[in-house]
Amino acid sequence: xxxxxxxNSIVFLTTLSVYLGLVLxxxxxxxxxxAMTRHFDVQNEIEVKDDLDKKPDDKELDNLxxxxxxxxxxxxxxxxxxxxxxxxEKFDTGYDEFALSQVGFTPCNVQGDPVHRAExxxxxxxxxxxPAVNDASNNFENWDYLSDCFEDEKxxxxxxxxxxxKFHYDKSELTVEVSxxxxxxxRAEQLTGKFNQALKIYEVGADEIxxxxxxxxxxxxxxxxxxxxxxxxxxGSLDALIxxxxxx
Length: 248
Known about the structure:
Elements: H1 2-24, H2 29-53, H3 58-87, E1 98-107, E2 117-124, H4 130-140, E3 150-151, E4 159-169, E5 173-181, H5 185-200, H6 209-216, E6 218-223, E7 226-234, H7 235-242
Antiparallel strand pairs: 1-2, 1-4, 3-4, 4-5, 5-7, 6-7
């Protein structure tokens, strides 16, 4: 920020010199005014850029680290549940498939317990998998605390916030995805950048075998006004994880 202040001072002094020069040579007042106006435009642009480039403080990083930890814990729990089914031969990674997606909407600024609406699509080939998928759904449906409030037709143009999640397994890869809706692409990009900063300093315990694989295969990205947290576990990695004692 000190560099920006120095730059602001240089811009101001330079612009002031131009202004005085124009006055001394008898330039029309409108030109001198334009020079000073341009200074304030540049200053505003610098302030906007500074706001976009601002690094999250320690408290914000701690909060995002807690969110990442919760995400890893919930993915781990899902993998462990699949492992339990695998151990009793109720989940065949070479045969079974499943897919679930849900988008939820919660109204903002509502007194009491707000009504949460969700749109869900499910396809599960093995009914033994249903309890594990249901438990995972309950864990991943509360990510709208990071979402922004903005107008949405789901609530008759009232302010609402939205998040979603997806689970998908197709005999080749397990995918877990969380989506967080922001009010603009810029806001989504900012949150993604902060998540990536928090991920760099996230520490995985030496004995956390499953979490290590989740960490290795998780990414954060933004598209339009949404932030996505995506974990992709290839079939080989998933087989190794659910076959070990930690998944029993």
